[in-house]
């Protein structure tokens, strides 16, 4: 704590926890902590002891600013109200701000296409995560959206590329395809294919024409190779 913090706490204790002989005949505590508790009450009533804003630099700044004084961008200050009241006021304003965009965006979004990627047994207690690594890219030159993803389980060596035209009424050839890495990095066709099989760790678009992938050896052994490859979309 800084010395300023300690002084603040000491002043608070001195001001609010003095004995109050005039309250001795009443039941309950003899200390005045209402100035703290009043801010935390979930009530719309005015504060018992509103704060003294005289000399506050922010209020003085607003008062002397012609443009900011009535600005709708500044959240109004309620010096007579508790924090709960202010919180509810702010939540109401935020909800009102988000309501219209939510309606407009919601009405503009619709399903363009539905593809079945995999099926699972309905008897399973928990659905396994089979869809991994989705990365989106928008090619503004050709107006095409791309989605890169991998499917776990039996196709870890493949990366799937889904593409759709930004104009949903138009279609593109090979809307979805898969690239299998497998053992394409083998030094020789005679090399054991099982010993140098690769799976995809990560994949991002490098630019409109190129995909960057991080591959690893699938064989369980120390010193697995990691490969950074640049793949042309063509």
Encode the helix/strand succession as letters: HHHHHEEEEEEE
Name the shape in a single word: elongated
Number of domains: 2
Structural class: alpha+beta
Q: Could you describe the largest sheet, including whether it forms a barrel?
A: 4 strands, antiparallel
Task: Report what the structure shows.
This protein is of the alpha+beta class and 234 residues long. It folds into 2 domains: 3-108, no CATH class; 135-184 and 194-232, no CATH class. The protein is 24% helix and 24% strand. The protein is built from 5 helices and 7 strands, in the order αααααβββββββ. Strands 1-2-3-4 form a 4-stranded antiparallel beta sheet, with no helix packed on it. A 3-stranded antiparallel beta sheet has the order 5-6-7, with no helix packed on it. This is APC4 protein. Keywords: Cell cycle, Cell division, Mitosis, Ubl conjugation pathway. InterPro entries: APC4, APC4_C.
Helix and strand topology:
Layout: H1 3-16, H2 34-37, H3 57-63, H4 66-69, H5 83-108, E1 131-139, E2 144-151, E3 158-165, E4 176-180, E5 198-207, E6 210-217, E7 226-232
Keywords: Cell cycle, Cell division, Mitosis, Ubl conjugation pathway
Protein name: APC4 protein
Domain Anaphase-promoting complex subunit 4 C-terminal half WD40: 136-234
Summed up:
By secondary structure, the protein is α+β, with helices and mostly antiparallel strands.
Please name the defining characteristics of this protein.
mitosis; APC4; four-stranded antiparallel β-sheet; alpha+beta; APC4_C; 2 domains; about 230 residues; three-stranded antiparallel β-sheet; APC4 protein
């Amino acid at each position: 704590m800084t010395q300023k913090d300690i002084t603040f706490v000491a002043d608070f204790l001195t001001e609010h926890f003095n004995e109050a002989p005039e309250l001795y005949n009443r039941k309950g505590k003899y200390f005045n902590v209402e100035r703290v508790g009043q801010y935390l009450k979930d009530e719309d009533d005015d504060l018992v002891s509103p704060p003294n804003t005289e000399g506050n630099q922010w209020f003085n700044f607003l008062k002397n600013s012609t443009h900011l004084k009535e600005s709708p961008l500044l959240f109004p200050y309620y010096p007579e109200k508790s924090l709960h009241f202010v919180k509810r006021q702010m939540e109401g304003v935020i909800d009102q701000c988000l309501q219209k965009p939510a309606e407009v965006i919601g009405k503009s979004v619709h399903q363009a296409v539905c593809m079945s990627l995999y099926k699972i047994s309905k008897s399973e207690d928990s659905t396994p995560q089979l869809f991994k690594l989705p990365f989106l890219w928008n090619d503004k030159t050709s107006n095409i959206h791309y989605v890169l993803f991998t499917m776990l389980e039996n196709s870890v060596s493949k990366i799937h590329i889904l593409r759709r035209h930004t104009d949903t009424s138009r279609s593109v050839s090979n809307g979805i395809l898969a690239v299998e890495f497998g053992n394409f990095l083998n030094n020789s066709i005679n090399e054991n294919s099982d010993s140098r099989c690769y799976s995809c760790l990560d994949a991002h678009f490098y630019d409109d024409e190129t995909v960057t992938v991080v591959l690893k050896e699938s064989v369980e052994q120390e010193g697995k190779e990691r490969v950074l490859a640049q793949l042309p979309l063509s």
